[in-house]
Write a structure and sequence with these properties.
- Helix 1 packs antiparallel against helix 2.
- By secondary structure, the chain is α+β, with helices and mostly antiparallel strands.
- The protein contains 3 helices and 4 strands.
- It has a 4-stranded antiparallel β-sheet.
- The chain has one domain: Alpha-Beta Plaits (2-Layer Sandwich), CATH 3.30.70.120.
- The radius of gyration is 14 Å and the shape is globular.
Length: 106
């Protein structure tokens, strides 16, 4: 059974940009938590294989806020085509899901 919560994933090129996105989402109560992890990425871009160090952000959100979350990420993001993906939280610890609920929204 799906919950009304999701994890939105995005990547960016610098720690500072990751922090700006996280601060914006948490500050606007669009995310209860944003986890930031340094990662190595390999991808195809404009016909070439690229390798880059990036920052992966895991944003815990209300699924109903996805469009607002995407818009907020795009306001700060420097990539022309940023990864912004929503993954539904199918199940989770009730107290954690309640924390997402009370930490987001107005």
């Amino acid at each position: 059974m799906s919950t009304p919560y999701a994890t939105v994933i995005t990547t960016c090129g610098t720690r500072r940009e990751a922090e700006m996105i996280a601060e914006s989402l948490v500050g606007e109560r669009l995310a209860a938590c944003v986890q930031m992890l340094a990662i190595d990425s390999m991808y195809r871009w404009q016909g070439e294989i690229e390798k880059a160090g990036e920052w992966l952000l895991l944003c815990k959100v209300r699924a109903s806020d996805y469009s607002k979350v995407e818009a907020e990420i795009r306001k700060v993001h420097s990539y022309k085509t940023p990864e912004i993906i929503e993954i539904a939280i199918e199940n989770g610890a009730a107290d954690y899901l309640d924390w997402i609920r009370t930490s987001t929204g107005r």
